[in-house]
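Long-time lurker, finally posting.

We've been working with Citrate lyase subunit beta/citryl-CoA lyase (Actinocorallia herbida) and I want a structural starting point before designing mutants. I don't trust myself to interpret raw outputs, so I'm hoping someone here can both generate the structure tokens and explain anything notable. Sequence follows.
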Amino acid sequence: MQSFSARSWLFAPGDSPRKMAKAADGSADAVILDLEDAVAEEGKPGARAGVAEFLAGRPEAERGRLWVRINPLDGPHALSDLAAIVPARPGGVMLPKARGPQDVEVLDHYLSALEVAAGTERGAIRVIALVTETAEGMFTTGAYKGAPRLTALTWGAEDLADAVGASDNRGPDGGYGFTYELARSLCLLGAAAAGVAAVDTIHGDFRDLAGLRARAEKVRRDGYRGMLAIHPDQVEVINAAFAPTEAELAEAREIVELFAAHPGVGAIGRNGAMLDRPHLARARALLAAGGLT
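Top reply, 14 upvotes:
Generated this for you. Predicted structure of Citrate lyase subunit beta/citryl-CoA lyase:
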């Protein structure tokens, strides 16, 4: 399976053809057609049929960036969701309320059977897992290494608050409380352990673009590689925040060239500071993220 890299992951409600089309026609790196939280219980059968029809109507070359958030595996809708959408060949599936890698393995079995039945390439549909929406899931975030089809981990704060019986997930200063910042850190560490991308959760106030920019820039520095979005206006801010700046690229080039000029050296001085091999690895990773070598 080819890897998949995305800065912006934009949700679109699966019961709104207009909003799905607007999202798909926009500049988000990935679009998530939502069959879970965005759709009321009574609307789920119609939404899954609508999402399948929408996918089938888009050019095949475009479907790699069109993903679907299905309903949780332990509920009554997930299999029906998958049976409807797999023949339309979405680029991937978002698994909500993942309790651990065993849920990704079950999802892989379902997807494999449905891909074979539909005559499509087995293993083509990728998976991004929401790993902190249940209390149980918090304890398994570091166990996803080797999970089939997995390309990214992300996290959520709203369902986690419900799971633990919290009245709010934010403190008086407006920032997330300790449990939810812990969830963010565990997602990042779990993604690193699994060798997949870490994707930050939504910024709920879609009008607060300045706050979104500040947060996106912070989590990129922390190691996140993308962010979920709930409104098209957020996409360009996220894309810009997760793209390396010219100054960062210039510094990374200088570090790579410095080590190249001194082969075999483990540490080297630059601008009054000592750089070692982890600095070189980060510089190379940043250049790769910028499409440079």
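Before you design anything, note these points.
The first strand starts at residue 8 and ends at 13.
The first helix runs from residue 17 to 24.
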